[in-house]
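Saturday, quiet lab. Running sequence design on the C-alpha cells for the scaffold JK sent over.
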C-alpha cells in the first residue's frame, strides 16, 4: 500500500514538473505582448502629440534678386495658359490660406486670424506652402503693398496641420489708418480711369490695355530718388504714388497696371526680379489667349525716345525674374502688327487710307497710335501713311522694328 502511494506521488510530481516549462512560456509570451503594446502606445503618443511652429515670410527677402524659382521651390507645377492669377497655381490647402487672407486682410490691420484646415497639409510641406501662398497673395493683390511680413503660427497633430493663426505685419507702413485712406483714394482713381475707358467703347482687350497703359504712363514720372531710398519715398513704391501722386518707380507702376487690368477684366500679372542685375518689376498680360511682356516703367523713363519700346514685345534677355512661383510661357513675337490699321492680318492700301482718315479726323484711339506710328517717332503723321503705302507697294520694312531691337 505504501509503495502504491509513493508511486502515485512520484507520477504526480513528474506530471507537474513537465507542465512548468509550458506555463513559463505562456508567461513569457504574455510579458512580451505587454511590452510591445506599451511600446506601440508610446509611439502613438509621440505621433499624436500637439506641436507648434511659427513661420515668417518676409516679402522683401522672398523676392530678393539673389533668389531664383529653382532655388526656392520645385518647378514641378506649371503655369497653364488657362490660368489667370498666381492663385491658380496653388493646391487645396494653399488655396484655403489664400482665400482666408483675402477675407481677412483686404484692409490694413494687425489683427490675428485663425484658420482651421479642411484640407491636409503636412508639417514637412508647411513652410514652402506658406511662402508660396504669401507670394501669390501679395502679387495678385496690388492693394496689399503695405504688408512686409506674413507670420503663420501652425498647430500640428500627428504632423498634420490642424490650424494656423496668421498675422500680417509691416515694417514701413505702420500707420494702418492712413494706408486704408490711401487705398480708398487709389480705388477712386482706378474707378475714374475705368469709367473714362468705358466711354471709348472699345470692343477688344488690346485697345483697352493700350488705353490703361498710356493713361498710366502719361500721368506718371519716374521718381529717381525713391529708387535707392524706399523708406523716405514709400508712396513711389506702391499704386498710390503711380495713380494718385503721379510719380513712382517700377514697383508702383507694375502694381498699378495690374490693378487697372484686374478692374478691366484683363488678365495681368506683376513680376518681380531684375534688369541688368538691378532690382526691377514689370508685367505679363494675356491678350488673345497668349501671355505677353510689357514694362510700363522703362518705356516711360528719361532718355527713351519711343514710349512703346517695351510694349507687348519679346522679353529682352536682360530681364530675370525672382518670383518663387511658376510663370506663364510668353509668346515672344511682336504682338503689335505695325501698319495693319484695319487689323485684318494683311497689308493693303485700305490701311494707308484708314490711317490718313484717323489722323486727320483726330480719331486715334486705343492701339491706333501704336499701330500707325510705323517709324516710331511718337506721333502719327503723313510720314507714317507714306511708309504704309511703301510697305504695300514695295514690301519695304518699317523702321520701327530696328528701333525696338535696340532696346535690350
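Result came back. Writing it out in full:
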Amino acid at each position: 500500500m505504501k509503495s502504491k502511494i509513493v508511486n502515485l506521488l512520484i507520477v504526480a510530481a513528474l506530471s507537474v514538473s513537465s507542465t512548468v516549462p509550458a506555463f513559463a512560456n505562456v508567461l513569457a509570451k504574455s510579458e512580451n505582448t505587454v511590452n510591445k503594446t506599451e511600446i506601440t502606445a508610446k509611439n502613438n503618443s509621440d505621433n499624436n502629440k500637439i506641436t507648434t511652429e511659427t513661420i515668417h515670410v518676409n516679402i522683401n527677402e522672398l523676392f530678393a534678386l539673389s533668389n531664383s524659382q529653382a532655388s526656392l521651390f520645385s518647378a514641378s507645377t506649371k503655369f497653364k495658359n488657362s490660368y489667370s492669377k498666381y492663385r491658380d497655381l496653388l493646391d487645396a490647402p494653399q488655396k484655403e490660406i489664400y482665400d482666408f487672407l483675402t477675407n481677412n486682410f483686404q484692409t490694413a490691420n494687425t489683427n490675428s486670424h485663425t484658420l482651421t484646415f479642411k484640407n491636409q497639409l503636412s508639417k514637412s510641406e508647411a513652410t514652402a506652402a506658406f511662402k508660396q501662398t504669401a507670394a501669390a497673395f501679395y502679387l495678385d493683390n496690388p492693394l496689399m503693398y503695405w504688408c512686409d511680413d506674413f507670420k503663420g503660427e501652425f498647430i500640428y497633430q500627428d504632423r498634420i496641420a490642424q490650424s494656423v493663426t496668421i498675422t500680417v505685419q509691416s515694417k514701413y507702413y505702420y500707420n494702418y489708418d492712413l494706408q486704408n485712406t490711401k487705398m480708398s483714394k487709389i480705388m477712386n482713381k482706378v474707378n475714374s480711369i475705368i469709367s473714362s475707358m468705358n466711354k471709348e467703347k472699345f470692343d477688344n482687350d488690346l485697345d483697352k490695355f493700350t488705353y490703361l497703359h498710356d493713361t498710366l504712363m502719361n500721368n506718371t514720372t519716374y521718381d529717381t530718388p525713391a529708387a535707392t531710398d524706399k523708406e523716405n519715398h514709400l508712396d513711389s513704391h506702391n499704386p498710390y504714388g503711380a495713380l494718385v501722386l503721379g510719380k513712382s518707380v517700377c514697383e508702383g507702376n507694375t502694381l498699378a497696371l495690374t490693378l487697372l487690368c484686374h478692374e478691366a477684366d484683363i488678365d495681368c500679372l506683376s513680376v518681380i526680379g531684375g534688369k541688368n542685375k538691378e532690382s526691377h518689376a514689370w508685367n505679363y498680360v494675356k491678350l488673345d489667349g497668349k501671355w505677353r511682356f510689357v514694362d510700363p516703367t522703362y518705356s516711360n523713363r528719361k532718355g527713351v525716345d519711343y514710349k512703346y519700346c517695351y510694349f507687348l514685345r519679346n522679353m529682352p534677355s536682360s530681364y530675370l525674374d525672382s518670383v518663387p512661383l511658376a510663370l506663364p510661357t510668353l509668346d515672344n513675337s511682336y504682338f503689335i502688327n505695325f501698319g495693319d490699321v484695319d487689323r485684318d492680318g494683311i497689308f493693303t492700301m485700305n490701311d494707308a487710307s484708314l490711317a490718313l482718315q484717323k489722323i486727320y479726323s483726330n480719331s486715334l484711339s486705343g492701339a491706333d497710335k501704336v499701330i500707325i506710328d510705323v517709324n516710331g517717332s511718337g506721333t502719327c503723321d503723313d510720314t507714317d501713311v507714306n511708309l504704309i503705302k511703301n510697305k504695300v507697294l514695295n514690301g519695304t520694312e518699317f523702321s520701327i522694328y530696328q528701333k525696338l531691337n535696340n532696346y535690350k
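Notes for JK: The two ends are 122 Å apart (CA to CA). Confidence is low (pLDDT under 50) at residues 1-44, 68-75. Ask whether to fix the surface positions before the next round.
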